[in-house]
Amino acid sequence: MCVRMCPLTAEEAQAVLDARATPGTHAIRYVDRPDPTLDARPGSLVPVYIPKDGGLAVAQLTWGFELNGKPNAVFNTRIESALEQLRPNGRGMWTKAIAEGRCLVPIRAFHESHATEKVTSEKTGRPVKRQYLFRLPGARAFLLAAVHEGDRFSVVTTAPNASVALVHNRMPLVLGPGESGAWLGPGFAGLADRSNIALASEPER
Asked: Residues with Cβ < 8 Å from 181, sequence gap 6 or more?
């Protein structure tokens, strides 16, 4: 379950798009340790790439769908559930979003809580699950698969690969180089297996 990530700013996200016209250039710098005060959580406004006029455009969307009158209540989308809803006569909250609203979230890193490791909270003094930060090695930024409907989006999750399984039983659907077009295209279901993506992790503290 992804509940915290380090997104690009809207200006950085646009700069990355603009730089695609000049291969070999880097629009943003590598940040060794993303600033945690800039992290996004459910309810945050986050720059997202959406398909537009044959290309991509930056849109500021709110992370999380409403459920039972509660805003931002559903912020992750299990790829298995979404694909099930795409079958003939399938229906559910993700049916339209997975069919028509696939999008991309540019980030520097994401966090996951360890299933068993705990540390003492600096705020409350109580034990809390240790947070691990995950990055794509050597990348200034990378993309998460997501879905959106209206002005809201949800991060798509899948079964963890070897990089994440020791920490958590789910992971965001991280896209590798050249896979953004596949997620936005008709063959997106084939991206559910993330065993080919190697991620680097480190405990937050």
From this structure: none
Cα–Cα distance measured from residue 194 to residue 190, given in angstroms and rounded to the nearest whole number: 10
Residue 50 maps to a domain:
yes
Phi, psi of 173 (to 5 degrees): -80, 90
**CA distances, 68 to each of 41, 114, 115 (Å):** 20, 29, 28
Contact 131, 124 (CB under 8 A): no
As a whole number of Å, the end-to-end CA separation of the chain is: 20
CATH at residue 167: 3.90.1680.10
Burial 11-32 (b: 16+ CB within 10 A, else e): ebbbbbeeeeeeeeeebbeeee
> Is 63 inside any structural domain?
yes
| Two tokens, residue 75 | 């912020």
Q: Rounded to whole angstroms, how far apart are CA atoms 97 and 154? A: 9
51-93: pLDDT as tens digits: 999 999 999 999 999 998 888 899 999 999 999 999 888 889 9
Query: Rounded to two decimals, what is the model's pTM?
Result: 0.94
